Amino acid sequence: MISIKKYNHKLQYVWDDFIINSNNGSIFNQQKFLQYHVDKKFVDSSLMFYRGQELVCLLPASLLIIKKKLCLISHPGASWGGFIYNHMCFDVSCQILEVLEKYCIRNKIKVIQLVLAPQYYTTFLGRTLEYSLYIKSYVLLQRYLSHVIVLSRNQNPILYFNKRKQQYLKSKFVNNANYVFRKTENIKSFYSILLENQSQFKTSPTHSYVELEKLRALFPKNIFLFGTYFKKKLIGGVCLFYISKSSALVFYNSLSCAFRGRQIGAYQIYKTIDFCSKKQISYLDLGVSHLPNSKNPLNPKTSLIKFKEQCGGVGVMRNKYNKEL
Description:
This protein is an alpha+beta fold. It contains nine helices and 15 strands. The protein has helices at residues 12-20, 31-34, 90-106, 128-135, 163-172, 187-199, 209-218, 264-278, 302-310; strands at residues 2-6, 43-44, 47-51, 54-59, 61-66, 69-74, 84-85, 111-115, 139-150, 179-183, 223-230, 233-242, 247-255, 283-288, 314-324.
């Protein structure tokens, strides 16, 4: 029999320990990550599912009013949420959904929306719970296109790129002492470049400066800042998140507008691939490629998609499911 318990701060150690040792959890799902937000306030409604006394599943979630309906949604403080578990059999997955829906009805929640973790963030393959969503009449509401580079051990980083990018990287960057890519603690200058870079696209960074500082302090072994220096001047950088045991995410890949057209972004991906390969990371996530300020924020950003494909990225999906109760 499955029972449900609402998360509270006294259970943070239990929650985060389960995430760390789970099949598909990531730092995005840890409570110390979800609680970092400085300027944003969310009504946390994360849930814990037990079979007897055994914790079997977590759901990082929040409450939100959408079109005058109270909705339980994957926590907006993370790129994805969905159910986090170790092993999931079909019978238990169906029970979890039944218990969740009864909980929502009791609490006058009208809609459930879940953004599932991408498949490559799992320790071992298994999509039983996603199949259970289909059986229980959850509707695929949205799909987000992301790109991931599947890394092979001992492969030259330049070989992930298409021929044209390889030639450019070799001629302009490889063995060029004027360009240096290294870890940096100069977060202030990096953030200035990030603001400058995103303002030209009329967007703003996901994290404020204070939030990014706080996150790096909370996760010193998971969040790395790299800078690209041209003749000792910072001209760009990458903010890299170690998401799980085998995966990393390029959260920001930015460059100074003065150096546009010089393929600094490709150079930074090249050096990031090299770093991740040496750390035995299997998947390098390049993030989603959409136009958030368009009428349809899920419209594909074709230039960004093309760039990621040229860097060796292959398209993968992040799926969002919806059910009205």
